[in-house]
Amino acid sequence: MKILDKEFEIFIPKEKIQQRIQELAYDLSYKLDGKDPLFVAILNGAFMFASDLFKEISIPARITFIKTASYAGTETTGSVQKLIGLKENVNGQHIVLVDDIFDTGLTMKAVCEEMWKQNPASISVLTLLDKVSKHKTDLKIDFKGFEIPDKFVLGYGLDYNGYGRNLKDIYALAD
Ligand code: 5GP
Ligand code: MG
Ligand code: MG
């Protein structure tokens, strides 16, 4: 499939994504039972994952959305911005940070550091995709959907210069 100037091929089909989300939601609901968790999803990339996952959470829970920006085109720029839009009181709360993809991990690390300043009871890190070979931080991922190789992916919320977020499957840049 051609998106802008690049050719993409199917990488993770929608059925597999949805199946994995059910497993993750089951695991999260079990581990966070009684903790009244606050899910904090990172826009824009995580919106679709957060929405599908949250529907499968079977315990009382809240969700809110924040923004950061660190990516332009297919290469990370390395500059991570601060959190925008967090209105909830995080103090004493069990936080689940939700992102689409963990690449260098610098975005998630920056978000965690900002969050810790507000004295949450705990922070769990949840990502749909994990590019294991790209990590530049030792931040621990508590829950993940899929480990993937170092490929640029799009679809299911993830974009290439703004396009491709609407796709139900995840695609990778064709070699
Ligand atoms: P990190 O800070 O972990 O290097 O990058 C995290 C952010 O970069 C992700 O939340 C995502 O928005 C973006 N990103 C990293 N890898 C990819 C990729 O392969 N495809 C897309 N579309 N975005 C990516
Ligand atoms: Mg993102
Ligand atoms: Mg992006």
TrEMBL record:
Residue span, Phosphoribosyltransferase domain: 16-160
Required co-factors: Mg(2+)
Primary enzyme class: transferase
Main subcellular localisation: cytoplasm
Pathway: Purine metabolism; IMP biosynthesis via salvage pathway; IMP from hypoxanthine: step 1/1
Keywords: Cytoplasm, Glycosyltransferase, Magnesium, Metal-binding, Nucleotide-binding, Purine salvage, Transferase
EC number(s) stated in the UniProt entry for this protein: 2.4.2.8
A single GO BP: GMP salvage
CDD domains reported in the protein's UniProt record: PRTases_typeI
An example Gene Ontology molecular-function term: magnesium ion binding
Xref: SUPFAM superfamilies: PRTase-like
Record flagged with keyword Nucleotide-binding: yes
Compartment(s) of residence: Cytoplasm
Catalyzed chemical reaction(s): IMP + diphosphate = hypoxanthine + 5-phospho-alpha-D-ribose 1-diphosphate; GMP + diphosphate = guanine + 5-phospho-alpha-D-ribose 1-diphosphate
One cellular component term from this protein's GO annotations in UniProt: cytosol
Family: Belongs to the purine/pyrimidine phosphoribosyltransferase family.
Name the UniProt record assigns to this protein: Hypoxanthine phosphoribosyltransferase
Organism name: Sporocytophaga myxococcoides
